[in-house]
Design brief:
The protein has 150 residues and is an alpha+beta fold. It has one domain. It is built from 1 helix and 6 strands; from the N terminus they run αββββββ. The longest helix is centred in the first third of the chain and has 52 residues.
């Protein structure tokens, strides 16, 4: 007597398939979490670059005569907020930045002239070192930007 082959899946095959799909789901979930963290870190860095550029532009519009050589300017808090929708989730990200500006020495950007009436010196530029820092997941991140304004 010939037995007919059995059709379908056994309980062991089903359990192995469920375990494999569970591991796959966990891996994809971990990948998505890492991608979101990377996106937030990049968004925070891009915001810091924007803050640094706006600080330099603001100081440049004030004019170099308003900046004292060797001075340190600290801006304790600058907030930036972004809205996003990764997938079906709407979220809002607010980052608090701190900026520190160090005005360089005038000696590199000073021109002196001797005339029959005396000597004159003219400062034609200032060197700015801008450091912007922010907190991301319990650690402080920062960027530094150097600019010469005239």
């Amino acid at each position: 007597m010939v037995k007919a082959p059995k059709k379908g899946f056994g309980i062991i095959e089903v359990l192995i398939a469920i375990a494999a799909l569970g591991f796959l789901y966990m891996a994809v979930n971990h990948l998505q979490t890492g991608n979101r963290d990377t996106l937030l870190r990049i968004r925070g860095r891009d915001g810091a670059i924007e803050v640094a550029q706006q600080v330099v532009d603001s100081l440049s519009s004030l004019g170099i005569s308003s900046l004292q050589s060797g001075a340190t300017i600290i801006i304790p808090e600058i907030k930036r907020t972004w809205k996003g929708q990764p997938g079906s989730e709407q979220y809002e990200m607010t980052v608090k930045y701190k900026a520190k500006i160090v005005v360089g020495n005038d000696s590199k950007f000073t021109r002196s002239e001797e005339t029959a009436y005396g000597s004159t010196s003219h400062v034609y530029g200032k060197h700015l070192d801008v450091s912007v820092s922010w907190d991301f997941k319990g650690s402080e991140q920062s960027i530094s930007v150097s600019r010469i304004i005239q």
